[in-house]
Amino acid sequence: xxxLKYKRIAVKIGSNVLARKDGTLDITRMSALVxxxxxxxxxxxxxxxxxxxxxxxxxxxxxxxxxLDAVSARQLYxxxxxxxLINRYYELFxxxxxxxxxVLTTKENFGSRTHYLNQKHCMEVMLENGVIPIxxxxxxxxxxxxxxxxxxxxxxxxxxxxxxDALIILSNVDGIYNGNPxxxxxxxxxxxxxxxxxxxxxxxxxxxSFGRGGMLTKCSIARKVADEGIAVLxxxxxxxxxxxxxLDKDSKVVHTLFRPSPKPISSVxxxxxxxxxxxKGEVHINQGATEALLGPKATSxxxxxVTQIKGDFEKDDIVRIFDDKGNQLGVGCAxxxxxxxxxxxxxxxxxxxxxxxxxxxx
Length: 362
Prior knowledge:
- By secondary structure, the protein is of the alpha/beta class.
- Helix content is about 35%, strand content about 20%.
- Strand 11 and strand 12 form a beta hairpin.
């Protein structure tokens, strides 16, 4: 193998990659991807797999006599299918002389810094001992508002948490197109820099056949992860040898690359960047504080510039930050609880409400 681009990667395998047209698990494709992961592993690449497929796997094992609602069907199929899926991965990797391990998680596990670090430690120990973590959402207990948008969101969280060099999102298309992928005139956008391109006019809004997300979700996640200094590649998981080709510096395989920011952020800021959904309150600041926050110098959110506190939050909880026009500026980790912060509004020369080290601007 020639020189590799990345040495530590997260790979998200989507539902449409692992599912046949009838919704059942495509064992042949799964085996081919495991072969590629094994080849990279044996060449020194550290890999975390974020794999869909539990529902597809369960759907092929059980037939229900009455119609189930979406949540019940997902819980039933995933409960049966997750066991089958991880066992299949275990057998395929064992044939390659590699050990894999299962990590099931929920969105709530990323809202607490302690749970977040526990997950990270678990996967770090696995990687240090040559075990490939295979991560999936615990669909049996994750329902409605507790669910990730889909595994694209989960893979972005994992890539940030594990300080990956790159996140590879495998879908059933070659990348982000500049039009409808079904249109022969459309072409794949090779590179997206700094998230500046407006993709909303041609990115498809429809969701994938078997997954919960779509290309807009992938773009949103990819931009955020790239802003954190991690390269994101979106490619066709049904193409032969796609993973090996993507990591080959000399390869010309078609895909979309979201170029990483040249200024990577700290691990704490990466956690905060993905924690907006866990925010417990709001902090509203005046125009002067907004200008300082968005200026060239690193600035904390000071209570002298805070005009309003909303919500009931504790010290170290995640809060959203808004300007005086109601526009969200970012998220941060509160240095006071809501009651104390409200009592200190407008005061000078005291510790920041949100220190710069615990602040992420959108």
